[in-house]
Amino acid sequence: MKSEVSNTDTYPVMEHFYTLQGEGHHSGKAAYFIRLGGCDVGCVWCDVKDSWDASKHPVLHTNEIAQAAAEQPCNLAVITGGEPAMYDLSDLCNGLHDKKFKTHIETSGAYPIQGDLDWITVSPKKFKKPLDETLKLADELKVVIFNTSDFEWAETHAVKVSEHCLLYLQPEWSKKEKIIPEIIAYIEQHPKWQLSLQLHKYINIP
Ligand code: SF4
């Protein structure tokens, strides 16, 4: 793992908690979630709007975050938000690696990735486009499907990721009854895609 000079060793943290990853390739795995405050992407259907204003959230030192994570028996940390890539995550990733964690990030891709991330999930948003350089680094592309026109939009991003990148379509929660059958039909016709469900919402965990 590379060692990097960090511009910051503190981060606004909206919440950090132990749960199961509910989405994408690592769905079902125990994970320590670190939700950073601050986001300027502005998705209308955002379910964590309280995260948007970073100044509302306590600023924690890497050591404090990593130590809290290390009190749990898992070895997977998910850095999410908000938009976590607004920050230089080098120090946080290094602190988590020192505690033997794998570092995962969930980002809209709107910012360059800074830090030693072991798994990069890019979930592009229409409200602030992902950077091509970030899409190229993605290990999984997770596109939220809100309506039928989003399939075409998903394909415009699929051509920008690397060959090893996994491709997921995920129903927007409030539209799931209508859109899941359409996603199933689309994946049957375009089997490079896989279905991602928000498992944590079905089983009512954070
Ligand atoms: S990028 Fe994420 S946190 Fe930011 S507005 Fe969109 S859904 Fe909400």
Write a structural description.
By secondary structure, this protein is an alpha/beta fold. It has one domain: TIM Barrel (Alpha-Beta Barrel). The chain has helices at residues 62-70, 90-98, 132-137, 150-158, 176-189, 199-202, and strands at 10-20, 30-36, 59-61, 76-80, 102-107, 119-122, 140-145, 166-171, 193-195. Strands 3-1-2-4-5-6-7-8-9 form a nine-stranded mixed beta sheet. Helix 1 (62-70) packs parallel to helix 2. The radius of gyration is 16 Å and the shape is globular. It starts with 9 loop residues before the first strand and ends with a helix. The site of iron/sulfur cluster has 12 residues, from loops. Iron/sulfur cluster binds at residues 39, 41-43, 46, 48, 51, 81-83, 108, 125.
The main pleated sheet reads as:
9 strands, mixed
Helix content: 10-25%
Low-confidence parts lasting 5 or more residues at pLDDT below 50? 1-6
Radius of gyration: 16 Å
Tell how many strands the DSSP assignment holds: 9
Number of helical stretches of at least 4 residues: 6
Strands, helices and their partners?
Elements (H helix, E strand, L loop, with lengths): L9 E11 L9 E7 L22 E3 H9 L5 E5 L9 H9 L3 E6 L11 E4 L9 H6 L2 E6 L4 H9 L7 E6 L4 H14 L3 E3 L3 H4 L4
The protein binds iron/sulfur cluster.
Question: How would you briefly describe this protein structure?
Answer:
With 206 residues, this protein is α/β, with parallel strands linked by helices. It is built from 6 helices and 9 strands; from the N terminus they run E-E-E-H-E-H-E-E-H-E-H-E-H-E-H.
